[in-house]
């Protein structure tokens, strides 16, 4: 069996194993919840209140409102229930705060658990005489709003008077701890929900919170903004698999004619398939356990950073004419490698900050700070790419290499379209974030992330099409010995299906024809000369 046959068998085996892995991952059932853990989180002072933010997630309406039996959590993530569950929630106050009360006192401190939808955020707190907004009820507000002094101001929602939800937890006697019993708050309608633990008692300053909450959607435990990405990465993995089949079948078939550039494209296609599979596995694991697997998430963001870096370096090398108008990058190799390392570290740091351990639907401030250097590097790369591409096109035009010039023009058109779409999308993303400070449009937020993966895949498909392995792959290769005419003759012969070994025969036939015509011309000249002599 020849090399091509063995390689095809190996490729088929790897493809079958990959499909089996995807099917196994799709068959995994979810069991637990999206968990927010609090480990002695301190209450911070905000206005006239002390509070801890318990989380913010997009939740869909519960399709089943029947409560679960106590101490019998649901065994299936797709049971149609949507709720926020509380487990082992414990508040601990200071010794000084507890000693101010007698042992027999019934209620010696109040902590309130507040759950509200983002649309009802103005229903928490009040403002006396149009001044600064207060979370806790003051003597003036108790007269105006009719609230109870020392408690959080709550105005019933117009759509549901039972919301926002408030749960009171009391300290008793001189006890330093107060516990919230295990319970669930079911979600009546789809929205972005926020959870806060609030105390209006100044004597409880220095209090801490321990425990955890479980946030569940009807179809799984992923936060609402992330849930569509699980299905999206299945689709992307299949798309990369189809591209891999098309590319590697040609890659193995024409192995003897493969260029260095095509080896690099193969690496990017393989890494892209691996990355999409890891992304799905990351979200599937998150959906099963309620926590993001740090190891898997770190792996997937590292593979993603590697793919982005290698893809950009590939585009830069192609734009410089590597292997086409120049055999090596020469003295700028070090600069290209340094830029690649810098871009990889910047992208890795940004992605680790954004994804590793992130379980909330809120974006952190650290990401905003890390986006800037990454954006500057992208802008620098774009300028370098188009400057190099312009020089390469000029060189090809000067050499009159029509086949290579046509390919590079198509490549430059694809790059221009990609850059224009990127700029337009960045503008839309800025508008989307600026006009939605409370993440109320969380259901369509996943498209922001998905667009960049789709755009990168589309550009990779264009590159694979333009530089697909074939018998005529060598028409892109750099050569110092061949002139412009022989290059065009070889390209013409390759396009017409003439084997490489017969190219010299084609040239010889042309020379023979030209020689024959010259002989005829000389004979006619001799006849004319003889006539003149006569």
Summarize the structure.
Helices cover 51% and strands 14% of the residues. The chain contains 12 helices and 10 strands.
Strand and helix layout:
Elements lengths: L2 H24 L7 E9 L1 E3 L2 E11 L23 E10 L2 H4 L10 E9 L21 H6 L20 E7 L5 E4 L2 E4 L4 E9 L8 E9 L10 H27 L6 H30 L4 H26 L13 H23 L9 H35 L2 H33 L11 H21 L17 H12 L7 H31 L1
Antiparallel strand pairs: 1-10, 2-3, 3-9, 4-7, 4-8, 4-10, 5-6, 5-9
Helix pairs in contact: 1-4, 4-5, 4-10, 5-6, 6-7, 6-8, 7-8, 8-9, 9-10
Written account of the structure:
- This protein is of the alpha+beta class and 534 residues long.
- It is built from 12 helices and 10 strands.
- The chain has helices at 3-26, 95-98, 139-144, 227-253, 260-289, 294-319, 333-355, 365-399, 402-434, 446-466, 484-495, 503-533, and strands at residues 34-42, 44-46, 49-59, 83-92, 109-117, 165-171, 177-180, 183-186, 191-199, 208-216.
- Strands 1, 4, 7, 8 and 10 form a 5-stranded antiparallel β-sheet that branches. Strands 2-3-9-5-6 form a 5-stranded antiparallel β-sheet, with no helix packed on it.
- Helix 1 (3-26) packs antiparallel against helix 4.
- The longest helix is centred in the C-terminal third of the chain and has 35 residues, at 365-399.
- Mean pLDDT is 79; it is low at 1-33, 68-75 and 480-530.
